[in-house]
Specification:
Blueprint: H1 3-10, H2 14-21, H3 25-32, H4 43-52, H5 57-61, E1 67-71, E2 74-81, E3 85-90, E4 104-106, H6 107-115, H7 126-132, H8 140-147, E5 156-160, H9 167-170
Antiparallel strand pairs: 1-2, 1-5, 2-3, 3-4
Helix pairs in contact: 2-3
Length: 173
């Protein structure tokens, strides 16, 4: 989970989050900006964040996975997730096959791009779609991990490390 992205989506400042959770601002700020790892936090801090975001401690500790972007079976980009940014190595500059305009973006921006590959957050019956994926809330990283970011209107999809899938395995029919 990217705490900064979640705070921005909820339009909540770090200061407000600090007040509501009881986590000192000086402790929260480095977590939010990726200067301190969640793995080094006390469980009580993780639990306060999980309660605040209505998720589990595992969701807080969830690491986004690196992935490749494909146009059918052509690899057009690799995305490497770092602590506070995503680095994109593009193999195609064709705008029809590419969803990234830059070689480096903040994780918040990556989350926004991935949300375009999901259903609308306010879609009617969104809970049913999330439930089918084993999710309890709208989280673009996790939705795309389950759906591979496949959409009806184009041939872009995501392949995660260790997968042996092809376009024929994931395309919408």
């Amino acid at each position: 989970m990217n705490i900064l992205s979640e705070l921005r989506l909820r339009n909540i400042s770090i200061n407000e989050c600090s007040k509501r959770t009881g986590i000192p601002y000086g402790s929260l700020y480095p977590l939010v900006h990726g200067k301190k790892s969640f793995e080094k936090c006390e469980y009580a801090t993780l639990k306060k964040l999980a309660d605040f975001f209505l998720c589990t401690v595992d969701d807080i500790l969830y690491k986004n996975e690196n992935f490749s972007v494909y146009w059918e079976n052509e690899r057009v980009a690799d995305v490497t997730i770092l602590e506070n940014k995503a680095v994109i190595k593009r193999f195609s500059k064709n705008p029809a096959k590419q969803i990234f305009a830059k070689d480096e973006i903040p994780l918040f921006e990556l989350g926004e791009i991935l949300s375009w590959r999901c259903w609308a957050k306010n879609r009617e019956n969104i809970e049913k779609y999330l439930f089918k994926l084993g999710l309890t809330e709208f989280q673009p990283y996790k939705i795309c991990r389950k759906t591979h970011g496949v959409m009806y209107q184009d041939k872009i999809w995501f392949k995660y490390e260790g997968e042996t899938l092809s376009w024929e395995d994931v395309k919408c029919v």
